Amino acid sequence: MKDTAPTDIALTANTIRGLAMDGVQAANSGHPGMPMGMADVASVLFLGYLNHCSTNPKWINRDRFVLSAGHGSMLLYSLLHLSGYDLSLDDLRLFRQLDSKTPGHPEVGHTPGVETTTGPLGQGCANAVGMALAERMLAERFNTTAWNPINHYTYVICGDGDLMEGISHEALSLAGHLQLNKLILFYDSNRITIEGSANLSCSDNPKKRFQAYNWNVLEIDAHNLESIEKAIRKAKREKTRPTVIICHSHIGKGSPKMVDSHESHGAPLGVEEVKASKRNLGLPEDQTFYVPERVRELFAARSKKLHRKTAKWEKQFKQYCEANPDKASLWQTCFEDRFPADLADRLPKFDPAKAVATRSASGKVIQALAQALPQLVGGSADLAPSTKTLIDNAASIAPGSFAGRNLHFGIREHAMGAIMNGMALHGGFRVFGATFFVFSDYCRPAIRLAAIMKVPVIYVFTHDSFYVGEDGPTHQPVEHAAALRCIPNVTVLRPSDPTETAAAWIAALKNKTGPTAILLTRQNLDVIDRTVYPPAASLEKGAYILWQNSGSAPDLTLVASGSEVGLCLKAARELATNRCVRVVSMPSWELFDAQDSSYRASVIPVECPTLVVEAGVSMGWSRYVGKNSAFMTVETFGSSGPYKALEKKYGFTVEAVVANALKLLR
Hints:
Elements: H1 6-27, H2 33-48, E1 64-67, H3 73-82, H4 89-93, H5 123-142, E2 154-159, H6 160-164, H7 166-178, E3 183-189, E4 192-193, E5 196-197, H8 206-212, E6 216-221, H9 225-237, E7 243-248, H10 271-281, H11 293-323, H12 325-335, E8 356-357, H13 358-372, E9 376-380, H14 384-387, E10 406-408, H15 413-426, E11 430-436, H16 440-453, E12 458-462, H17 480-485, E13 491-493, H18 498-510, E14 516-519, E15 524-525, E16 544-548, E17 556-560, H19 564-575, E18 581-585, H20 589-593, H21 597-603, E19 610-613, E20 629-632, H22 643-649, H23 654-665
Parallel strand pairs: 1-2, 2-3, 3-7, 6-7, 9-10, 9-11, 11-12, 12-14, 13-14, 17-18, 17-19, 19-20
Antiparallel strand pairs: 4-5, 8-15, 16-18
Helix pairs in contact: 1-2, 1-3, 1-10, 2-3, 2-9, 5-7, 5-15, 7-15, 11-12, 13-18, 15-16, 19-23
């Protein structure tokens, strides 16, 4: 770097090594080896190339930096502290302590400057692909011949563990296919895992692997400052491929005894070894969390330069908005995720005389939403014809072509979820992803992280029960609704008919503090006539009284979700000849839980005999009903055969509901 002497870079790297050792030692917990090994690379990147602004951490055109190897969090915290973010030395001293700004793994929204929550290995790699994809798509929408408001890079540090996890294969393969040339991955190839040498379990050739993905592959000595700088410059010149810089590093670099040892991976070095390491690095061994004044000066100068760059961008952006009012308006819509107040009125209406599968109804809703919401983009894990999620009259995202709205994730559910998270974290889009409900298991780690991060991605899960039929038990999601419902901050919506499906989409769009899953049928369902029954917008309360044959307190309550609501309506009419029967549509536990206790009691009175009907396991339903209750559920894996035959086999018929209700009443 022209402005920074190699001796200054080396001093910075050694300072980071000292901070990492001290943080882990103070906590008596953590991973010092990786930060020590990648300190040289990170110092070159932050002091010379990464464009960001500590005084404006949410600057839209900042470069994104993702530490996919999140166990090495002291590397990131040290860099953020030195860069001037709201992260003090005292915060570093509280590494891994309760309620500190420096948790064990980076958490977005918790620590200023952290772009995504990493920890589960490989997730950060896929998040970064999503960020790089969002950058390319936004550049296509907003850049002009006069000026480019969107023009930044996504940098990642990953390790051997990230690349061993399958999600990295899925995500990095897609990145190569899409030619995301502004994605630069530093692979910390230290060949060490917790158990010992990586050779214990892995003999891959990473160079050939990335070449097969259509990546630009560079190799460097991770401790040669000139090589690091040349590699970054070369990566930034690449126009058609993402770049991986394979960094041959020494884990625990600077430690006399622990360098290249798996013992430095996930445990403190020990007091004496920390002192010895500091002596070896030229740091004062009797001081902890030591930062030389020269390092402060280097980062202050860099921050001043970046602040000027950000201010210049802001000035140019104001001029851009004045010159391009249509783009300025679109910018606000996209980055503030605005939608019209009358959005629900713009959605399709469904004829009660024509039965429709809720997946098909959702497809029609998506078309209407796409007309109203330019920020809405999405795709499927190679199942768009079945999930009905292709946006009509919109192009597909493809290599070198990013103006479209349809994402083709390929058969990559693991990566799809994490890429969606990355796009949402980047900003500018409201993104959905789709697959068969049974494959939500493949998305689960990303869904969980979306819930932790409060990321408002939307999942469209179709083929939601044993009614899948002939595909058999491997494709019949029995336990999956319960599995999603038990993740905190995930909103699950299982609409009862096409009209409630439209309401589910509105509820999903309104949820901006976590992921939403919409569960949809393969089979046709009757359209509930909303001129007779309560409005489908009642879905937003989670559960509501759909039908009752008299105004008195019910003798029996039938509670159902999804396709079983219509079944209960039919059974209730047979049961209501000499008793008061109530039917409750309960599309969402989470929305129902958010209502006050008086409303919940008014909908499902626990003193009333209650029959719960759902084509899935009963786990969790007991919390909503009283002692005098019964469950018509499915506690096995389903079977292969026509869905009408399975309906009878598993007892989801009007006759079975009536019989179970009468048994409960007796």
